[in-house]
Amino acid sequence: MPRHAVYPSEARLEGTTAVITGANTGVGKETARHLYRRGARVIIGVRSVERGEEARSEIVESTAGEQEAAGALIVLQLDLASLQSVRDFAQEVLAQADKINLLINNAGVMACPRAETKEGFEMQLGVNHLGHFLLTLLLLERLVSSAPSRIVNLSSQAHTRGKMHFDDLMLKRGYGDWKAYYQSKLANVLFTRELARRLLGTRVTTYAVHPGIVRTDLWRHQGCFDRLLQPMFKTPEQGAQTTLYCALAPELATLSGRYYSDCKEKQPSARARNDEDAARLWEISEELVGVGLQGNSVTQLRQGSATAPQTESAPAQQETETEPTPPQETKAQPAPPQGDGQATTEPAETNGQQPE
Predict the structure, then answer these.
(1) Phi, psi (5° rounding) for residue 243?
(2) Tens of pLDDT along 267-298?
(3) Is 7 considered catalytic here?
(4) Which of 36, 181, 207, 259 is the catalytic position?
């Protein structure tokens, strides 16, 4: 059996507020469990409130009787395949949380048949990237005012096979289920990188995470393929370890825009290190969701469009070896303060990955 990294910290998180998407099952649920048992106030965004409440009850029961007091778990409805749902969720979070120390963009869909979000976006790009892009921007001012704070984006090693199809982001010409997934996971890493650059000096840091090949509901579209790979799979608890490491490890407090796997920093693909592509994706994403960022302030743009801007195919970008810039203007401080989509295919609220 393969050995998997474990993040051993037992830091207490009283006074910390975390927001996690897709936390009613899989990696997200285990992440919520660990933060809750350490005393954090955890807000989980789920498509089905009923399933979210079931997960909340199970987490609370599993930690009952532990010596140290647990935190609080709040379940709110969130459908990342609807920008209006994302807006409603963000508004409710801001109404209930006067500070946000952690934002963990965990939910996702994987290699599903072609479908579209309510705004007409290709489902995997819409849920995995655009929904989380909008959510992050809507919560960003609160994250900045709560600094030091962290944003963790679940990506995948699958990003190494990805390419940004800027001339056809919604893949209306030649859709492939894995092709769309690879693109969306590359978008996660590029978003993490560009966000870090824009947040330089705010003490809000960003991290992209590959949780590993995890046994979750994401595999339901793959037939018997998942059963063949069972010996390679991590459990959801094992898959949550790198997320927890990036969310809590004090030594990462001044590092930003980096990519991690098995609780270690890893170098992402050359395409994922392309700053021009990262900036271009950001600008297109702002247009699509109708929200932009000026300095540290979020600005409402025109109503987001349902299709990517029609542009000529960009020439191949020269691959850059530039590494993400750490926020050197800040002093090392642990964060948090105490240490250390829907159609024929319903997006799974967890983020297991496929083999490379």
Answers:
(1) -60, -45
(2) 999 999 999 999 999 999 999 999 988 876 77
(3) no
(4) 181
